[in-house]
């Protein structure tokens, strides 16, 4: 399996719980690390900047979050000098066209997925990651 | 005979008439003293034949005398003629020479003649001739029509070519008609009166009237009559008639223009190159409430400024006038009663044909109603766009918050479906319950907000703010005690604010609770509540020394729904959103000033209008 570690960044604890169940059932990755606060995820990434082994392969990122939101996370993420290519997927319940357009402006965003996440959607992501790595 | 001749000589001498004689046979020539005197030769001058001819001015005069003498000598023809001579002293004189031929046996024997100095007379004639020419040239080439009228019968006896141009008649048609025929029916009496008056006065007078042309058109003219003159007991009157249609047209145009300028409802002020008013119309006086005396000699507008007059507009106008440029501007002015009005002013510059600056012309109008409508429209637009924004936000909230819960629920359903293990299915039931609870909680919040927004017409009441704050502090006394927060206020005891009581309660509770919730653990928490009055608002400041927040990063989210910034467990992200909605429902607003780790100041605006 190419996708070893996936970060889930979402303030909604129920969503994180459900995502974890779905992901492990679908064998999307080997390990999941979840963050309710994007700031914490960012700090973790910074800490492991030079250790590709413990950096995630994919990040599932929610947009609407208190404190640091998805956009702010992306802006800070770009500034990091990571050597590893990480697939970022926006995963949100927002169906606002403005959000979808804004997501396209970030090159690092591989795809924009509307909640709810389903087994089928995870399959597509798997393929996307496969293409990249 | 001798006696007779002598008598004759004497008479001639005293009449200054010279006598001369020439014998044709002997060529003997005699000049008397008068002749010699005229020729300015000495008294002892002894003339010989041919001497005389040389005094006649060379050219036509000399040729003529030669010719005359020749025909007299050879054909016996007497003559009587006038000549120009040059005297011995080189003076030019005019003389009259009469020559009688004395015949003896049918042949000319003697030429007898007189010689008379007529220089004076000739000069007079010459001058007269010149005058005639001068006057006839004036008469024929004058720009005015000149009529000479016989006052005994009113007949035009002469007129110049210009008359023909003016009237359309030929000169020969004009001569002989009665002068009144030149005037239209209705002006004849006036013309008659005018000429009659002039006949008595003998002054130069001018009058304006109309004449009728051959084609029947009426032309405005100026009629002047000068001195009359008499020939053969008949008095003639000279009339000068001048076509003044162009001037009249210009005058009419000017009259119309000045009528328009003075009667228009637009205000007009004309200023000189220094910007000093030289003229203003009634509309300007009406609008400004000034008198003409107050306006003239001053810079227009100097009495129209007021406290709210925009300084930028004033300086723009000053600059344009300084540079002698045109400008269009709308300013808030004041009339004499200190009433405000919006004044749309168009200052244009006028130059003459040589591009010299002459005047500023300021045309303006009162556009108060238009500007007020514009302002009202702008306000309406603000309200609408605000409403639209609110609606958009609300839709977004609904779509996002409801969707996030429903998508969770559908994910639960998904995992339930994807397992055959009944135990596992049942284990997901707790998650399902959690999802539905959150959904209903969201719906409740949304409902609460809709209720706030709908009830904008709940009656506001006068509330004593100080009392309300005390009430809230009492309700929160346990948390206040626990948090050790120091709450101070400088609210006047008697300050009354206008608000919906339940909303004010909720707002105070929320803001005080927030100050406690987001206090800094690094220092003793404080909250100062202050009051100020801005425009129509009672503004209440809630200034804390808590965690504060980075407005640049999160300012746009602070009053949104479900936005929390400090990761507190009890932060629901709904409080400020509700506070904002409640204030807006009362036509108020909320603002925040904050710095991370220094504290925040929430300013609530209660509309007192």
Oligomer: heterodimer
Residue fraction in strands of chain A: 15-25%
Could you please say which CATH topology of chain A applies here? Rossmann fold
Q: Tell me the strand order in the biggest sheet of chain A.
A: 2-1-3-4-5
Number of helices of chain A: 5
**How many strands appear in the DSSP assignment of chain B?**
22
Count of strand segments of chain A? 5
Q: Regarding CATH, which class of chain A?
A: Alpha Beta
- Helix proportion range of chain A: 40-55%
Structural class of chain A: alpha/beta
Terminal CA distance of chain B reads 141 Å
Radius of gyration based on Cα positions of chain B: 59 Å
> Strand content of the residues of chain B, in percent?
25-35%
Overall helicity of chain B: 40-55%
Number of helices of chain B: 19
Biggest interface, CB < 8 A: A-B, 25 and 29 residues
Number of domains of chain A: 1
Q: What general form of chain B does the structure show?
A: rod-shaped
InterPro entries (chain A): CheY-like_superfamily (IPR011006), Sig_transdc_resp-reg_receiver (IPR001789), TCS_response_regulator (IPR052893)
Modified residues (4-aspartylphosphate) (chain A): 62
Protein name (chain A): Transcriptional regulator
Keywords (chain A): Phosphoprotein
Describe this structure in words.
The complex is a heterodimer of chains A (133) and B (609). Chain A has a single domain (5-132), classed as Response regulator (Rossmann fold). The mean pLDDT of chain A is 86. Chain A is of the alpha/beta class. Chain A is built from five helices and five strands. The longest helix of chain A has 14 residues, at 13-26. Chain A has a five-stranded parallel β-sheet, sandwiched between helices. Chain B is an alpha+beta fold and 609 residues long. Helices cover 43% and strands 28% of the residues of chain B. Chain B has a five-stranded antiparallel β-sheet with strand order 2-1-5-4-3, with helices on both faces. The longest helix of chain B is centred in the middle third of the chain and has 50 residues, at 368-417. Chain B starts with a helix and ends with a strand. The mean pLDDT of chain B is 86. Chain A binds chain B through residues 12, 14-15, 17-19, 21-22, 25, 37, 64, 66-67, 69, 72, 93-96, 114-119, and chain B through 396, 399-400, 403-404, 406-408, 410-412, 414-415, 418, 431, 434-435, 438, 553-554, 557, 562-567, 571, 573. Chain A: Residues 5-130 form the Response regulatory domain. Chain A: Keywords: Phosphoprotein. Chain A: InterPro entries: CheY-like_superfamily (IPR011006), Sig_transdc_resp-reg_receiver (IPR001789), TCS_response_regulator (IPR052893). Chain A: This is Transcriptional regulator. Chain A: It comes from Flavobacterium fryxellicola.
């Amino acid at each position: 399996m190419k996708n070893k570690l996936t970060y889930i960044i979402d303030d909604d604890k129920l969503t994180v719980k459900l995502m974890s169940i779905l992901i492990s059932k679908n064998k999307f990755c080997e390990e999941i690390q979840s963050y309710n606060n994007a700031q914490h995820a960012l700090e973790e990434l910074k800490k492991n900047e030079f250790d590709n082994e413990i950096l995630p392969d994919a990040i599932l990122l929610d947009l609407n979050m208190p404190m640091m939101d998805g956009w702010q996370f992306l802006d800070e993420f770009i500034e990091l000098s990571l050597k590893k290519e990480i697939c970022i997927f926006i995963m949100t319940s927002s169906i606002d066209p403005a959000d979808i357009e804004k997501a396209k402006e970030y090159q690092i965003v591989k795809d924009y997925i509307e909640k709810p996440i389903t087994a089928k959607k995870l399959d597509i992501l798997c393929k996307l990651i496969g293409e990249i790595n | 005979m001798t006696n007779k001749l002598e008598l004759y000589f004497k008479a001639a001498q005293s009449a200054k008439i010279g006598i001369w004689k020439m014998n044709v046979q002997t060529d003997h020539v005699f000049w008397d003293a008068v002749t010699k005197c005229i020729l300015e030769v000495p008294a002892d001058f002894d003339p010989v034949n041919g001497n005389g001819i040389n005094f006649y001015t060379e050219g036509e005069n000399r040729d003529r005398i030669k010719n005359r003498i020749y025909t007299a000598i050879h054909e016996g023809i007497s003559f009587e003629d006038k000549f120009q001579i040059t005297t011995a002293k080189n003076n030019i004189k005019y003389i009259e020479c009469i020559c009688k031929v004395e015949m003896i046996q049918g042949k000319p024997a003697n030429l007898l003649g007189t010689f008379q100095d007529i220089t004076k007379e000739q000069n007079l004639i010459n001058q007269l001739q010149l005058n005639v020419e001068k006057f006839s040239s004036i008469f024929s080439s004058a720009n005015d029509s000149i009529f000479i009228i016989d006052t005994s019968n009113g007949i035009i006896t002469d007129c110049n070519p210009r008359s023909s141009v003016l009237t359309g008649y030929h000169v020969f048609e004009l001569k002989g008609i009665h002068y009144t025929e030149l005037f239209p029916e209705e002006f004849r009496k006036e013309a008659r009166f005018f000429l009659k008056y002039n006949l008595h006065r003998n002054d130069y007078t001018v009058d304006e009237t109309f004449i009728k042309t051959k084609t029947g058109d009426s032309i405005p003219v100026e009629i002047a009559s000068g001195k009359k003159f008499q020939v053969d007991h008949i008095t003639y009157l000279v009339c000068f008639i001048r076509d003044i249609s162009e001037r009249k047209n210009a005058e009419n145009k000017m009259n119309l223009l000045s009528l328009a300028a003075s009667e228009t409802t637009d205000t007009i002020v004309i200023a000189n190159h220094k910007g000093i008013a030289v003229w203003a119309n009634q509309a300007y006086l009406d609008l400004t409430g000034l008198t003409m005396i107050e306006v003239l000699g001053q810079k227009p507008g100097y009495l129209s400024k007021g406290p709210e007059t925009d300084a930028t507009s004033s300086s723009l106008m000053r600059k344009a006038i300084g540079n002698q440029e045109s400008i269009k501007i709308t300013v808030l002015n004041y009339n004499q009663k200190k009433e405000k009005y919006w004044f749309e002013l168009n200052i244009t510059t006028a130059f003459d044909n040589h591009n010299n600056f002459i005047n500023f012309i300021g045309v303006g109008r009162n556009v108060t109603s238009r500007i007020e409508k514009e302002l009202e429209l702008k306000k309406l637009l603000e309200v609408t766009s605000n409403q639209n924004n609110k609606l958009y936000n609300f839709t977004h909230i609904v779509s996002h918050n409801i969707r996030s819960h429903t998508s969770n629920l559908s994910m639960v359903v998904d995992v339930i479906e994807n397992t055959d293990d009944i135990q596992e299915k049942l284990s997901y039931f707790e998650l399902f319950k959690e999802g539905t609870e959150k959904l209903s909680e969201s719906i409740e919040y949304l409902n609460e907000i809709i209720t706030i927004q709908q009830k904008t017409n709940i009656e506001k009441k006068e509330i004593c703010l100080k009392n309300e704050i005390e009430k809230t502090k009492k309700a929160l006394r346990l948390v206040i005690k626990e948090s050790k927060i120091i709450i101070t206020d400088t609210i006047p005891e008697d300050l009354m604010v206008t608000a919906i009581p339940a909303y004010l309660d909720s707002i105070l509770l929320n803001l005080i609770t927030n100050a406690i919730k987001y206090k800094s653990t690094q220092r003793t928490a404080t909250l100062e509540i202050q009051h100020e009055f801005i425009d129509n608002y009672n503004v209440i400041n809630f200034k804390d020394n808590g965690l504060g927040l980075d407005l640049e990063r999160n300012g746009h989210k602070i009053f949104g729904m479900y936005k929390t910034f400090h990761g507190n467990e009890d932060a629901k992200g709904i409080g400020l959103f509700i506070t904002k909605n409640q204030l807006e429902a009362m036509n108020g607003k909320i603002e925040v000033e904050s710095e991370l780790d220094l504290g925040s100041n929430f300013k609530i605006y209660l509309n007192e209008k």
